[in-house]
Amino acid sequence: MTSPAYREYDHIVIGGGAFGSAACYWLSARPGSRVLGLEQYELGHRRGSSGDSSRYIRPYHRDRRYSQLLPAAYDAWRSVQSTWQTAPILFTIGGLEIGDGSAAGQQMITDLAAALERDSIPFESPSPAQVHARWPQFRMYGDEQCIYQGDAGFVDPRHAIRAHAEIARDRGATILAETPVTKIEHDSGRWVITTPAGEFRSPRIILTAGAWTQRLLDQLGYPLAITVTEEQVTYFGARTLSDFALDRMPTFTFRSDEPMLYGGPDYAGFGVKITQEIMKHTVAPETRSHQLDLGVVQTCKAFLSQRLPGVDGPMISGRTCLYAGPVDRDLIIDHVPGAPGALMAIGGGVGFKYSSLVGRLLTNLAHDETPQVDISGFGLARESLRTPGHGFGSICVWLSSAAF
Ligand SMILES: Cc1cc2nc3c(=O)[nH]c(=O)nc-3n(C[C@H](O)[C@H](O)[C@H](O)COP(=O)(O)OP(=O)(O)OC[C@H]3O[C@@H](n4cnc5c(N)ncnc54)[C@H](O)[C@@H]3O)c2cc1C
């Protein structure tokens, strides 16, 4: 455990995953700010929401609250990349959306096309035959509707978290790994944070604790139920894996009347990524099973044999991962009511693409600045969190907001 530089800080960030590392990065960019980041495990661990080699990003969204964040989200990644040349962070390899012949599949593509037009984002609507001609890896059946957008792609979470943390440290931030916060108290206008490395004090704390957020909010006396579900990603091999390399195919989603499937090319030898949102295994971070849902693995295999038949190898790897968010599944970026100087952010199943921007927005809030984008839709006072079911101790289910 590294020795902390100080006991008193201007900002203490609790949680060093996607959002917490980004908060340390942007807070430490302010000259003279003493920033402490506390992470209970090693940085870049895989027990939370961010442990994977890719998280998808696209510059469009049906919901205007999210689409207006996306230009700033891309800018934030480009800004981090410009100061960290160790490894690539953002890969804009293009994204293909496929809706099958079902009414739901067609409607989803129609809605996405409308969102792209609304926001004046260039895109293509290739026919199934054109998709197959350009990316012969995809078998098409002729009744699909498709969209291709060239700025979509993915962020490498391993590189993103490392970049945020390394630069923050270079700027003078202290980031302590393997340092769990065990108690939070408010005393004489200061937050007192207890850890095995001792106590730390600050007028401002930022909760970026993902699936562990609810227990921290409990200590602040703020009743918000956070639903945690165990999701999974799987990677498959192919006899000719080079056909599925980064420069040969885009990321993709497949929309039908079943839950969405999505994936992307082989990156760094992990294999072709394919997964389906599950959102039914509600867990606690400590008691989750870490077991793959074999039904979903079968669904993914069936999809590959029907739609990407060249991905004919065995499953190379698969792991579970946590979605954590409020009942409406939307982002939260806000002050914690009744807890002076406390901020929080949580990302659910959609958050990684925004994470560097979220760190920047938290920095704005910590400095009482007006953020560059409208975050009023991500506040704790929103209507969807005031309905019965969001309260402390209640049983939550995910609402289907199709926020992906
Ligand atoms: C399978 C899957 C696929 C996804 N795909 C996408 C995608 O394609 N695109 C996208 O944009 N998003 C995607 N997401 C969502 C995205 O990954 C999350 O929104 C994002 O990673 C959340 O980051 P976080 O920092 O909130 O959580 P985490 O990365 O889990 O970080 C929280 C951190 O807080 C630490 N912590 C908790 N309590 C304490 C404590 N008491 N003391 C110290 N540290 C503590 C934890 O150890 C953890 O490191 C996906 C998520 C999953 C699970």
TrEMBL record:
Keywords: FAD, Flavoprotein, Oxidoreductase. Its cofactor is FAD. It comes from the Bacteria. GO terms for molecular function: flavin adenine dinucleotide binding; sarcosine oxidase activity. Pfam families: DAO. Gene3D superfamilies: D-Amino Acid Oxidase, subunit A, domain 2, FAD/NAD(P)-binding domain. SUPFAM superfamilies: FAD-linked reductases, C-terminal domain (SSF54373), FAD/NAD(P)-binding domain (SSF51905). The keyword Kinase does not apply. Residues 10-365 form the FAD dependent oxidoreductase domain. InterPro entries: FAD-dep_OxRdtase, FAD/NAD-bd_sf, MTOX. PANTHER family: FAD DEPENDENT OXIDOREDUCTASE DOMAIN-CONTAINING PROTEIN, PEROXISOMAL SARCOSINE OXIDASE. This is FAD-dependent oxidoreductase. It comes from Leekyejoonella antrihumi. The lineage of its organism: Bacteria, Bacillati, Actinomycetota, Actinomycetes, Micrococcales.
